[in-house]
Amino acid sequence: MSEAPRAAAPDPAPGAGTMTVPALAARIDRVALRAPVFISDLHLSALRPATVAHFLSFLRGLPAATAELVVLGDLFEFWAGDDALAGAEADDALGGTVAQALADLAGRGIAAYLMHGNRDLLLGEAFLARSRAQLLADPTVATVGSAADAGGPLALLLSHGDAWCTLDLPYQAFRRQARDAAFQAGFLRQPLAQRRALIGQARARSEAGKQQMAMEIMDVTPDAVAGALRTAGLRHVLHGHTHRPDHHEFSLDGQPAHRWVLPDWEIEALPPRGGGLAWRDGKLHPLAG
Fold it and tell me: Could you say which architecture CATH assigns to the domain 19-281?
Protein backbone atom coordinates (compact mmCIF):
# COMPACT_ATOMS: atom_id res chain seq x y z
CA MET A 1 0.00 0.00 0.00
CA SER A 2 1.22 3.49 -0.73
CA GLU A 3 1.12 5.93 2.14
CA ALA A 4 1.16 9.72 2.23
CA PRO A 5 3.06 11.81 4.75
CA ARG A 6 1.80 11.34 8.29
CA ALA A 7 2.61 14.86 9.43
CA ALA A 8 -0.35 17.04 10.29
CA ALA A 9 -1.53 19.38 7.58
CA PRO A 10 -0.55 23.04 7.90
CA ASP A 11 -3.17 25.51 9.10
CA PRO A 12 -5.51 26.43 6.23
CA ALA A 13 -4.72 29.67 4.45
CA PRO A 14 -7.35 32.40 4.15
CA GLY A 15 -10.07 31.38 1.72
CA ALA A 16 -9.06 27.72 1.85
CA GLY A 17 -12.60 26.66 2.58
CA THR A 18 -13.60 27.62 -0.97
CA MET A 19 -10.87 25.56 -2.65
CA THR A 20 -11.87 22.51 -4.67
CA VAL A 21 -9.44 19.89 -3.44
CA PRO A 22 -9.30 16.43 -5.02
CA ALA A 23 -11.22 14.88 -2.11
CA LEU A 24 -14.21 17.03 -3.07
CA ALA A 25 -13.91 16.66 -6.84
CA ALA A 26 -15.55 13.24 -7.23
CA ARG A 27 -19.21 14.16 -7.46
CA ILE A 28 -20.43 11.29 -9.68
CA ASP A 29 -21.59 8.23 -7.74
CA ARG A 30 -23.99 6.83 -10.35
CA VAL A 31 -23.20 6.39 -14.01
CA ALA A 32 -24.71 4.69 -17.06
CA LEU A 33 -22.16 2.98 -19.31
CA ARG A 34 -23.01 1.62 -22.77
CA ALA A 35 -19.91 -0.29 -23.84
CA PRO A 36 -17.10 0.28 -21.33
CA VAL A 37 -13.53 -0.96 -21.01
CA PHE A 38 -12.35 -1.22 -17.39
CA ILE A 39 -8.68 -0.98 -16.37
CA SER A 40 -6.85 -0.20 -13.15
CA ASP A 41 -3.47 0.05 -11.44
CA LEU A 42 -1.36 1.17 -14.37
CA HIS A 43 1.13 2.90 -12.03
CA LEU A 44 2.44 5.01 -14.90
CA SER A 45 5.87 6.45 -14.25
CA ALA A 46 8.82 7.75 -16.27
CA LEU A 47 10.74 4.86 -14.71
CA ARG A 48 8.50 2.39 -16.58
CA PRO A 49 8.73 3.58 -20.19
CA ALA A 50 7.60 0.26 -21.68
CA THR A 51 4.40 0.35 -19.62
CA VAL A 52 3.78 3.98 -20.60
CA ALA A 53 4.31 3.23 -24.30
CA HIS A 54 2.08 0.18 -24.09
CA PHE A 55 -0.69 2.16 -22.38
CA LEU A 56 -0.61 4.90 -25.02
CA SER A 57 -0.76 2.24 -27.74
CA PHE A 58 -3.63 0.56 -25.87
CA LEU A 59 -5.62 3.80 -25.93
CA ARG A 60 -5.03 4.29 -29.64
CA GLY A 61 -6.12 0.70 -30.29
CA LEU A 62 -9.34 0.66 -28.28
CA PRO A 63 -12.01 -1.16 -30.30
CA ALA A 64 -14.34 1.04 -32.32
CA ALA A 65 -17.30 -0.27 -30.33
CA THR A 66 -15.87 1.15 -27.08
CA ALA A 67 -18.04 3.91 -25.63
CA GLU A 68 -16.22 4.51 -22.34
CA LEU A 69 -12.81 3.96 -20.76
CA VAL A 70 -13.04 3.56 -16.98
CA VAL A 71 -9.81 3.67 -14.93
CA LEU A 72 -10.47 2.45 -11.38
CA GLY A 73 -7.57 4.11 -9.64
CA ASP A 74 -3.76 4.30 -9.64
CA LEU A 75 -3.41 5.64 -13.15
CA PHE A 76 -0.06 7.02 -11.97
CA GLU A 77 2.56 5.58 -9.64
CA PHE A 78 2.24 8.83 -7.71
CA TRP A 79 0.71 12.26 -8.23
CA ALA A 80 1.93 15.19 -6.17
CA GLY A 81 -0.72 17.67 -7.35
CA ASP A 82 -2.06 19.16 -10.55
CA ASP A 83 0.55 21.92 -10.53
CA ALA A 84 2.99 19.18 -11.54
CA LEU A 85 1.54 19.52 -15.05
CA ALA A 86 3.67 22.66 -15.35
CA GLY A 87 6.73 21.12 -13.70
CA ALA A 88 10.06 20.21 -15.22
CA GLU A 89 10.45 16.61 -13.98
CA ALA A 90 10.08 13.62 -16.32
CA ASP A 91 6.94 12.48 -14.52
CA ASP A 92 5.46 15.96 -14.96
CA ALA A 93 5.86 15.70 -18.73
CA LEU A 94 4.35 12.22 -18.54
CA GLY A 95 1.28 13.64 -16.81
CA GLY A 96 0.70 16.03 -19.70
CA THR A 97 1.20 13.27 -22.26
CA VAL A 98 -1.31 11.00 -20.54
CA ALA A 99 -3.82 13.82 -20.13
CA GLN A 100 -3.61 14.57 -23.86
CA ALA A 101 -3.99 10.88 -24.75
CA LEU A 102 -7.15 10.69 -22.65
CA ALA A 103 -8.46 13.91 -24.17
CA ASP A 104 -7.90 12.46 -27.64
CA LEU A 105 -10.43 9.72 -26.79
CA ALA A 106 -13.19 12.31 -26.69
CA GLY A 107 -12.54 13.10 -30.35
CA ARG A 108 -13.26 9.46 -31.11
CA GLY A 109 -16.49 9.48 -29.11
CA ILE A 110 -15.04 7.60 -26.13
CA ALA A 111 -15.77 9.09 -22.71
CA ALA A 112 -13.03 8.78 -20.07
CA TYR A 113 -13.81 8.19 -16.40
CA LEU A 114 -11.21 8.15 -13.63
CA MET A 115 -11.36 7.10 -9.98
CA HIS A 116 -8.84 7.99 -7.31
CA GLY A 117 -6.56 5.18 -6.20
CA ASN A 118 -4.26 5.11 -3.20
CA ARG A 119 -1.32 6.49 -5.24
CA ASP A 120 -2.98 9.19 -7.35
CA LEU A 121 -5.56 10.56 -4.93
CA LEU A 122 -4.33 14.13 -5.58
CA LEU A 123 -5.54 14.14 -9.19
CA GLY A 124 -7.76 17.20 -9.31
CA GLU A 125 -9.79 19.58 -11.41
CA ALA A 126 -6.90 20.81 -13.57
CA PHE A 127 -5.96 17.30 -14.69
CA LEU A 128 -9.62 16.46 -15.30
CA ALA A 129 -10.06 19.56 -17.45
CA ARG A 130 -6.94 18.84 -19.46
CA SER A 131 -7.78 15.16 -19.95
CA ARG A 132 -11.51 15.83 -20.56
CA ALA A 133 -12.17 13.03 -18.06
CA GLN A 134 -14.83 12.77 -15.38
CA LEU A 135 -14.05 11.71 -11.82
CA LEU A 136 -16.05 8.94 -10.20
CA ALA A 137 -16.67 8.67 -6.48
CA ASP A 138 -15.46 5.55 -4.70
CA PRO A 139 -17.67 3.56 -4.78
CA THR A 140 -19.87 4.28 -7.80
CA VAL A 141 -22.96 2.39 -8.92
CA ALA A 142 -22.80 1.71 -12.66
CA THR A 143 -25.49 0.47 -15.00
CA VAL A 144 -23.60 -1.34 -17.75
CA GLY A 145 -25.10 -2.16 -21.14
CA SER A 146 -28.70 -1.76 -22.23
CA ALA A 147 -32.01 -3.58 -22.45
CA ALA A 148 -30.92 -4.79 -25.89
CA ASP A 149 -28.12 -6.87 -24.36
CA ALA A 150 -28.70 -10.53 -23.65
CA GLY A 151 -29.85 -10.61 -20.05
CA GLY A 152 -30.31 -6.85 -20.00
CA PRO A 153 -28.02 -4.29 -18.32
CA LEU A 154 -25.75 -5.20 -15.40
CA ALA A 155 -25.86 -3.24 -12.14
CA LEU A 156 -22.26 -3.10 -10.97
CA LEU A 157 -20.52 -1.56 -7.96
CA LEU A 158 -17.22 0.05 -8.99
CA SER A 159 -14.38 0.76 -6.57
CA HIS A 160 -10.61 1.02 -6.41
CA GLY A 161 -10.86 -1.57 -3.63
CA ASP A 162 -8.47 -0.30 -0.97
CA ALA A 163 -11.33 0.70 1.36
CA TRP A 164 -12.14 -2.99 1.74
CA CYS A 165 -8.65 -4.05 2.93
CA THR A 166 -9.98 -3.68 6.47
CA LEU A 167 -7.45 -5.99 8.15
CA ASP A 168 -4.68 -3.49 7.37
CA LEU A 169 -5.48 -1.10 10.20
CA PRO A 170 -2.52 1.28 9.75
CA TYR A 171 -3.38 1.69 6.08
CA GLN A 172 -7.02 2.41 6.86
CA ALA A 173 -5.96 5.15 9.29
CA PHE A 174 -3.77 6.64 6.56
CA ARG A 175 -6.62 6.35 4.04
CA ARG A 176 -8.98 8.36 6.22
CA GLN A 177 -6.40 11.10 6.68
CA ALA A 178 -5.26 11.22 3.06
CA ARG A 179 -8.81 11.63 1.77
CA ASP A 180 -9.68 14.37 4.21
CA ALA A 181 -10.32 17.64 2.36
CA ALA A 182 -8.62 19.82 4.98
CA PHE A 183 -5.53 17.61 5.02
CA GLN A 184 -5.28 17.66 1.24
CA ALA A 185 -5.71 21.43 1.07
CA GLY A 186 -2.90 21.91 3.56
CA PHE A 187 -0.63 19.40 1.88
CA LEU A 188 -1.14 20.99 -1.53
CA ARG A 189 0.00 24.37 -0.16
CA GLN A 190 3.48 22.99 0.42
CA PRO A 191 6.05 23.48 -2.36
CA LEU A 192 5.87 20.86 -5.10
CA ALA A 193 9.42 19.67 -4.44
CA GLN A 194 8.64 19.14 -0.77
CA ARG A 195 5.48 17.21 -1.63
CA ARG A 196 7.46 14.95 -3.95
CA ALA A 197 10.04 14.28 -1.24
CA LEU A 198 7.40 13.46 1.36
CA ILE A 199 5.57 11.14 -1.02
CA GLY A 200 8.84 9.40 -1.88
CA GLN A 201 9.60 8.83 1.80
CA ALA A 202 6.10 7.49 2.42
CA ARG A 203 6.33 5.10 -0.54
CA ALA A 204 9.64 3.75 0.75
CA ARG A 205 8.10 3.13 4.19
CA SER A 206 5.12 1.46 2.60
CA GLU A 207 7.21 -0.90 0.47
CA ALA A 208 9.31 -1.86 3.49
CA GLY A 209 6.20 -2.52 5.54
CA LYS A 210 4.65 -4.77 2.89
CA GLN A 211 7.62 -7.13 3.06
CA GLN A 212 6.63 -8.06 6.61
CA MET A 213 2.86 -8.23 6.11
CA ALA A 214 0.79 -11.35 5.41
CA MET A 215 -0.79 -11.32 1.96
CA GLU A 216 -4.32 -11.78 3.31
CA ILE A 217 -4.00 -8.54 5.30
CA MET A 218 -3.39 -6.66 2.05
CA ASP A 219 -6.39 -8.24 0.31
CA VAL A 220 -10.02 -7.18 0.52
CA THR A 221 -12.03 -8.87 3.25
CA PRO A 222 -15.22 -10.71 2.21
CA ASP A 223 -17.26 -9.05 4.95
CA ALA A 224 -16.28 -5.57 3.75
CA VAL A 225 -17.20 -6.38 0.15
CA ALA A 226 -20.48 -7.97 1.23
CA GLY A 227 -21.32 -4.94 3.36
CA ALA A 228 -20.67 -2.56 0.46
CA LEU A 229 -22.87 -4.63 -1.85
CA ARG A 230 -25.70 -4.71 0.70
CA THR A 231 -25.49 -0.94 1.15
CA ALA A 232 -25.72 -0.45 -2.61
CA GLY A 233 -28.39 -3.12 -3.04
CA LEU A 234 -26.23 -4.96 -5.61
CA ARG A 235 -24.69 -8.39 -6.15
CA HIS A 236 -21.91 -7.59 -8.64
CA VAL A 237 -18.71 -5.70 -7.90
CA LEU A 238 -15.59 -4.74 -9.86
CA HIS A 239 -12.38 -3.36 -8.35
CA GLY A 240 -8.62 -3.19 -8.65
CA HIS A 241 -5.90 -2.42 -6.10
CA THR A 242 -4.99 -5.94 -4.96
CA HIS A 243 -3.17 -6.96 -8.18
CA ARG A 244 -4.93 -10.35 -7.99
CA PRO A 245 -7.00 -10.53 -11.19
CA ASP A 246 -9.82 -13.06 -10.93
CA HIS A 247 -13.54 -13.65 -11.15
CA HIS A 248 -14.95 -14.79 -7.82
CA GLU A 249 -18.41 -16.32 -7.52
CA PHE A 250 -19.92 -16.40 -4.03
CA SER A 251 -23.21 -16.32 -2.15
CA LEU A 252 -24.61 -13.09 -0.74
CA ASP A 253 -27.62 -13.55 1.52
CA GLY A 254 -28.52 -16.74 -0.31
CA GLN A 255 -28.22 -15.20 -3.78
CA PRO A 256 -25.38 -15.68 -6.32
CA ALA A 257 -22.91 -12.79 -6.39
CA HIS A 258 -19.82 -11.96 -8.43
CA ARG A 259 -16.58 -10.08 -7.78
CA TRP A 260 -14.23 -9.21 -10.63
CA VAL A 261 -10.69 -8.04 -9.85
CA LEU A 262 -8.70 -6.12 -12.44
CA PRO A 263 -5.00 -6.77 -13.11
CA ASP A 264 -2.21 -4.29 -12.55
CA TRP A 265 0.05 -3.22 -15.42
CA GLU A 266 3.81 -3.70 -15.67
CA ILE A 267 5.11 -4.44 -19.13
CA GLU A 268 8.69 -4.46 -17.81
CA ALA A 269 7.90 -7.53 -15.67
CA LEU A 270 8.52 -11.11 -16.74
CA PRO A 271 5.97 -12.12 -17.78
CA PRO A 272 4.41 -8.74 -18.61
CA ARG A 273 1.18 -7.83 -16.82
CA GLY A 274 -1.75 -5.80 -18.03
CA GLY A 275 -5.24 -5.97 -19.44
CA GLY A 276 -8.72 -5.35 -18.19
CA LEU A 277 -12.35 -6.17 -18.83
CA ALA A 278 -14.62 -5.12 -21.70
CA TRP A 279 -18.40 -5.26 -21.94
CA ARG A 280 -19.63 -6.92 -25.10
CA ASP A 281 -22.46 -9.27 -26.01
CA GLY A 282 -24.06 -8.62 -22.62
CA LYS A 283 -21.10 -9.87 -20.56
CA LEU A 284 -17.74 -8.83 -19.11
CA HIS A 285 -14.87 -10.33 -21.09
CA PRO A 286 -11.12 -10.31 -20.39
CA LEU A 287 -9.27 -7.77 -22.54
CA ALA A 288 -5.57 -8.14 -23.20
CA GLY A 289 -3.43 -5.17 -22.27
Answer: 4-Layer Sandwich (3.60)
